[in-house]
């Protein structure tokens, strides 16, 4: 069959990973965009609970994104606030990660603790009210603070709120970000930093948000790291490197193998797609959902 004649509907229905790569290449040259009406269910296996980050799809309304995600077989939208929750409820969707405090002004600095803790507490209340699992937190930038001091400060701050998270049965997830390309001076830029914080706080409600894109830039060795630190990881983000674009054959990470490794650890949380599409967003999201449905 001529690649140029492959329909978008065939793209969505096809379940072969080999064919997925072929079809993605064919779609890259197409001018017609996939419509919401054409989206069909993609998730078949369901070993990975897939979500999608709201900010990457701002050209769609939240209503539209919920419709698309639900039709594809996803159950959640990532990185929203309480004002968005009525819309999620209408669609029967979950917020897999609730936004909280500032990224650069985080838990590694004692002067930020009061504001960060208040923001996290408010997000935990919203999560508990709606039955959502996770709220986000950040180390913050170094701003001259040594990493070991930042660990102690973050532990001190998180201990002020972790009891409340335990009471409400909500996870606080510290996000790993790269300090090389996107977030200069960000402190939690190595897995070991976050693991040490989790160990020192000593609660199952403090976890790592392991962003695979950021981790690839800083350390690589993704699958081994996931296996070795599975007990401390509570949430995942995807993204292609270089560029944080589609998670396809244009970049250096092979997501089917990564998802298989995550599933084999027994992980029951969410994997949220957090890449910025360069091509048609719905086709790119459909491709990502299928190759991660291992």
Would you write up a description of this structure?
This protein is of the alpha/beta class and 294 residues long. The chain has a single domain, classed as TIM Barrel, CATH 3.20.20. Helices cover 41% and strands 14% of the residues. The protein is built from 12 helices and 8 strands. It has an 8-stranded parallel β-sheet with strand order 3-2-1-8-7-6-5-4. Strand 7 (233-238), helix 11 and strand 8 (270-273) form a beta-alpha-beta unit. Helix 2 (17-28) runs antiparallel to helix 12 and helix 10 (222-228) runs parallel beside helix 11. Residues 1-31 have low confidence and may be disordered.
**What sequence of helices (H) and strands (E) makes up the elements?**
HHEHEHEHEHHEHEHHEHEH
Q: What would the principal axes of the Cα set say about the shape?
A: globular
Fourth-tier CATH superfamily name: Divalent-metal-dependent TIM barrel enzymes
Hey, roughly how much beta strand do the residues contain? 5-15%
Ends apart, CA distance between termini:
27 Å
CATH architecture: Alpha-Beta Barrel
Look up the CATH topology: TIM Barrel
The residue-averaged pLDDT reads 92
Per CATH, the class reads Alpha Beta
Question: How much helicity do the residues have?
Answer: 40-55%
| Count of individual beta strands | 8
Number of domains: 1
**Which structural class do the helices and strands define?**
alpha/beta
Main sheet: strand order:
3-2-1-8-7-6-5-4
Catalogue the unreliable spans.
1-31
Number of helices: 12
Query: What is Rg?
Result: 19 Å
Main pleated-sheet profile = 8 strands, parallel
